[in-house]
Amino acid sequence: METTGIVRRRTAERRRDTLERLVTERDVWVSTAHPDHGPHQVPLWFLWDGRAAWMCTSATSVTARNVREEPRVRLSLPDTFDVVLLQGEAECFPDQEVPGGAAEAFAGKFGWDPRVEEGSFLYVRVVPRTVRAWRGEPELRGRVIMRDGKWLE
């Protein structure tokens, strides 16, 4: 791996950069698992509300089935050099029971409102318990920037 020129960021810088990316990024990889069917990974649009990531998927999707059975999930932003991984538990909201503010913000970001579509959709909210962030090998040490739901200094 080429690491020339990488300047190791302090934890506060990593947190700032991570929060900025969570607000501006559109896609997140969602990794789920089912006790009988094993792991599943899919990219979804997401909204960061300042505390949690909100995604939406068909209520009959593998992702929806998995988070109902096993709520522990991992989310990752789609850059393999500027890595951001979030772990937490999924909380599920059928499209007609999702909090209005979250649904409106999601629709505003993407120009798509699942609540008015045919078929049922499931909103998935993940409040991270652990966040890891690093850019290349020089930042592997100290990559945990949130532990037990608290940002580290």
Automatic annotation (TrEMBL):
Protein name from the UniProt record: Pyridoxamine 5'-phosphate oxidase N-terminal domain-containing protein
Domain of life: Bacteria
Signal sequence region: none
Pfam families: PNPOx_N (PF01243)
Domain Pyridoxamine 5'-phosphate oxidase N-terminal: start-end pairs: 26-133
Upper lineage: Bacteria, Bacillati, Actinomycetota, Actinomycetes, Streptosporangiales
Keywords: Oxidoreductase
